[in-house]
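Take a look at my tokenised protein here and describe the backbone shape.
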Amino acid sequence: MRIGVLCSGGDSPGMNAAIRGAVLRGVEVHGFEMVGFMDGWRGFHEGDFVELDRLAVRGISPLGGVMLGTSRVPPFPDGKATPEALRAVAARMAELGIDAFMLIGGNGTQTVAELLTRAGIRAIGLPKTIDNDLAGTDYTFGFDTAVSIAAEAIDRLRTTGESHRRCMVLEVMGRDAGWIALNAGIAGGAQVTLIPEFPESIEQICDWVLSVRDRGRSSLVVVAEGFAFDGADQVVVREGLDGFGRPRLGGIAEVLAPLIEQRTGIEARATVLGHVQRGGSPTAFDRVLATRTGIAGANAAQEGAWGTLAGLRGDRIEMVPLSEIAGELKTVPADRYEEVRLTFG
């Protein structure tokens, strides 16, 4: 069997470890041939790939980024999974001698994997995204690293904020789900954490900041990029669209900090963490999780369990049907947010 490994969407720490786990199990144990397409679907369309064997993946687990590259190039023309487009994918696979896909990605990628499966094209998914918003798995690899980086940033901002009696506002990633902000806020002891799922008014935010000042402390506010004020739309301060045609987010902290300063009289400063969250070496947790999902994906291919995702359930990797989770967004539930919200201020 010849399996094509393909990464799509944003990069995420741990992707190299996932590739290594899949190749060592798939090639060395099950006797597969495996190739990696460069830069996601671009490599598939253009026939740009590399052979994957033990030598090719040697020493890559601790490395950030992804050896194959990734992109938001769509798998289908115009992004539409028409019957003709799906037949074109199957025909291209035959030209390249590919029997199946192993797709490493988040919601969009796994939705594509499910569409391919329904069309009779064999595919298995590995769950990566720093946002941790993919259904079917307790954690996605890359998330723990992003949270650790954000928590370290909180620690550093807190010391300078306390020195100047400033309110420090840290913006982290999270368009639709606030998992990074929530967990980093807890880890760093932030006095306020703002996430897309639960809008808050500027009045409430300022009340929390003032409460912190009245105790003789300086506030640390963590805000996800997709947060919106109560009764308002998402705040967009950057021009243009992203790879999925959505407005580019980022900059809510630069809107929030001046509002806090204006309404409370407390000097406020904004920091946008941005792509720093994606970079650098993955944590040990992400390396282990990614390796385990890669191994599980190769085992599933050997067993013919196509149309499944290697998801973490408790401490076990289970193959979850893509039909049950494709297109489903895993957001922060109300009870998780409320238990943290009670500590704000």
User: Anything to note?
Assistant: The longest helix spans residues 143-164.
